[in-house]
Amino acid sequence: MARAKHPPIKRDWLGKSLAGLLLGFTLALALSGLAGLLRPGLDGAEAQLLMWMVPPVWVAVLGGVFMFPDGWRAWAWLSLANLVAWGLLTTCLHWG
Q1: What is the pTM for the complete model shown?
Q2: Is residue 1 part of a domain?
Q3: What is the DSSP string of 10-79?
Q4: Is residue 30 part of a domain?
Q5: Which residue segment(s) compose the domain that 38 sits in?
Q6: Could you tell me which residue, 86 or 49, shows the higher pLDDT?
Q7: 6 DSSP 8-state letter
Q8: Residue 30 has pLDDT above 70, yes or no
Q9: What is the number of domains present in the chain?
Protein backbone atom coordinates (compact mmCIF):
# COMPACT_ATOMS: atom_id res chain seq x y z
CA MET A 1 0.00 0.00 0.00
CA ALA A 2 1.50 3.31 -1.09
CA ARG A 3 1.43 6.20 1.30
CA ALA A 4 0.60 9.67 0.06
CA LYS A 5 3.45 12.10 0.49
CA HIS A 6 2.61 15.10 2.61
CA PRO A 7 4.58 18.32 2.34
CA PRO A 8 6.89 18.85 5.30
CA ILE A 9 5.86 21.21 8.06
CA LYS A 10 7.47 24.58 7.46
CA ARG A 11 9.79 25.89 10.09
CA ASP A 12 8.50 29.47 10.08
CA TRP A 13 5.62 28.86 12.46
CA LEU A 14 7.42 30.95 15.09
CA GLY A 15 7.45 34.02 12.83
CA LYS A 16 3.78 33.55 12.00
CA SER A 17 2.88 33.03 15.65
CA LEU A 18 4.71 36.16 16.77
CA ALA A 19 3.11 38.19 13.98
CA GLY A 20 -0.32 36.99 15.05
CA LEU A 21 0.35 37.62 18.73
CA LEU A 22 1.88 41.08 18.44
CA LEU A 23 0.33 42.59 15.34
CA GLY A 24 -2.96 40.76 15.84
CA PHE A 25 -3.36 42.37 19.25
CA THR A 26 -2.68 45.88 17.98
CA LEU A 27 -5.00 45.30 15.03
CA ALA A 28 -7.76 44.11 17.36
CA LEU A 29 -7.32 47.23 19.50
CA ALA A 30 -7.54 49.50 16.45
CA LEU A 31 -10.65 47.74 15.14
CA SER A 32 -12.27 48.01 18.55
CA GLY A 33 -11.53 51.73 18.58
CA LEU A 34 -12.98 52.14 15.09
CA ALA A 35 -16.12 50.26 16.13
CA GLY A 36 -16.41 52.60 19.11
CA LEU A 37 -16.32 55.62 16.83
CA LEU A 38 -19.35 54.34 14.94
CA ARG A 39 -21.49 54.88 18.01
CA PRO A 40 -20.73 58.09 19.90
CA GLY A 41 -21.98 58.43 23.45
CA LEU A 42 -21.56 54.84 24.55
CA ASP A 43 -23.10 53.69 27.80
CA GLY A 44 -21.36 51.24 30.10
CA ALA A 45 -22.67 48.04 28.50
CA GLU A 46 -21.71 49.12 24.99
CA ALA A 47 -18.24 50.12 26.11
CA GLN A 48 -17.91 46.74 27.79
CA LEU A 49 -18.89 45.07 24.52
CA LEU A 50 -16.12 46.94 22.71
CA MET A 51 -13.64 45.79 25.32
CA TRP A 52 -14.72 42.17 24.97
CA MET A 53 -14.56 42.43 21.18
CA VAL A 54 -10.75 42.49 21.29
CA PRO A 55 -10.05 38.83 22.28
CA PRO A 56 -12.20 37.19 19.56
CA VAL A 57 -10.71 39.41 16.86
CA TRP A 58 -7.23 38.74 18.20
CA VAL A 59 -7.81 34.97 18.21
CA ALA A 60 -9.25 35.12 14.68
CA VAL A 61 -6.15 36.93 13.42
CA LEU A 62 -3.91 34.52 15.32
CA GLY A 63 -5.68 31.56 13.74
CA GLY A 64 -5.71 33.07 10.28
CA VAL A 65 -2.04 33.97 10.27
CA PHE A 66 -1.14 30.35 9.50
CA MET A 67 -2.77 30.69 6.08
CA PHE A 68 0.16 32.85 4.95
CA PRO A 69 2.85 30.99 3.02
CA ASP A 70 5.65 32.28 5.23
CA GLY A 71 6.32 34.45 8.25
CA TRP A 72 7.58 37.44 6.26
CA ARG A 73 4.30 37.78 4.40
CA ALA A 74 2.36 37.51 7.65
CA TRP A 75 4.42 40.34 9.13
CA ALA A 76 4.07 42.44 5.97
CA TRP A 77 0.30 42.07 5.58
CA LEU A 78 -0.47 42.49 9.25
CA SER A 79 1.79 45.54 9.41
CA LEU A 80 -0.07 47.03 6.47
CA ALA A 81 -3.42 46.23 8.08
CA ASN A 82 -2.24 47.89 11.30
CA LEU A 83 -1.07 50.99 9.46
CA VAL A 84 -4.43 51.32 7.71
CA ALA A 85 -6.50 50.67 10.86
CA TRP A 86 -4.48 52.98 13.10
CA GLY A 87 -4.34 55.60 10.35
CA LEU A 88 -8.12 55.53 10.02
CA LEU A 89 -8.56 55.70 13.77
CA THR A 90 -6.16 58.62 14.12
CA THR A 91 -7.76 60.45 11.20
CA CYS A 92 -11.27 59.94 12.57
CA LEU A 93 -10.25 61.11 16.03
CA HIS A 94 -8.42 64.15 14.64
CA TRP A 95 -11.13 65.30 12.21
CA GLY A 96 -14.18 63.99 14.07
Answers
A1: 0.85
A2: no
A3: PSTHHHHHHHHHHHHHHHHHHHHHHHHHTSSS--HHHHHHHHHHHHHHHHHHHHHGGGSSSHHHHHHHHH
A4: yes
A5: 13-95
A6: 86
A7: -
A8: yes
A9: 1
